[in-house]
Specification:
With 173 residues, this protein is mostly helical. Helices cover 75% and strands 0% of the residues. It contains eight helices and no strands. It has helices at residues 2-36, 42-69, 71-75, 79-94, 97-105, 118-129, 133-143, 151-163. The longest helix has 35 residues, at 2-36. The protein starts with a helix and ends in a 10-residue tail after the last helix.
Length: 173
């Protein structure tokens, strides 16, 4: 019964992250389109993208955290289905998403108990999302591009696999 409960927990955690990632990417793309059509100013676009990008970083961190917290259980499952999650978790780590979340997106103080540096935060954010709109679009495509290998597709496939396992058809916990 414990495995069934864990399958259900992971499934619903992934469903939430998949929904949050998809919504934030859609909104970010909409803002980029509105900017390119001169419907939004640069400042309006930047502030809206900041919210989308912070949301994406927090959700990506949660994907990494799911992999981390349920590591032992995930390793007991079919590697063909969980392998992409492990790959994306490594990429999340490589992209410094965990660092940005821990130092800037989730706190107001740095490690030396001083207010966070918005300049340093922007520099790190630019390394994650890219420093211009085409790079941001590439970041969004890495997260979600319908019909292509991406984070959301990997989560969707893992969710579908978990639904076939004991507990996978349980209601939300």
């Amino acid at each position: 019964m414990e495995k069934a409960k864990t399958n259900n927990e992971i499934k619903w955690l992934l469903v939430d992250q998949m929904a949050d990632l998809t919504a934030a990417v859609c909104m970010g793309r909409d803002f980029l389109t509105a900017y390119s059509q001169s419907k939004l100013t640069m400042i309006q676009t930047m502030t809206r993208l900041r919210i989308c990008n912070h949301s994406l970083i927090l959700s990506l961190y949660k994907v990494w955290e799911i992999r981390d917290k349920y590591n032992q259980h995930l390793y007991s499952l079919d590697s063909a289905h969980v392998g992409p999650l492990f790959s994306y978790a490594k990429e999340i780590d490589k992209r410094n998403i965990n660092k940005f979340r821990s130092r800037y997106a989730a706190h107001i103080w740095d490690l030396k108990d001083k207010p966070i540096s918005l300049v340093e935060a922007q520099i790190l954010l630019d390394t994650i999302t890219g420093e211009n709109n085409s790079k941001v679009q590439e970041f969004y495509d890495w997260i979600w591009l319908d019909g292509e290998p991406c984070v959301v597709t990997a989560l969707h496939q893992l969710i579908n696999y978990l639904r076939t396992l004991p507990g996978g058809d349980f209601a939300r916990f």
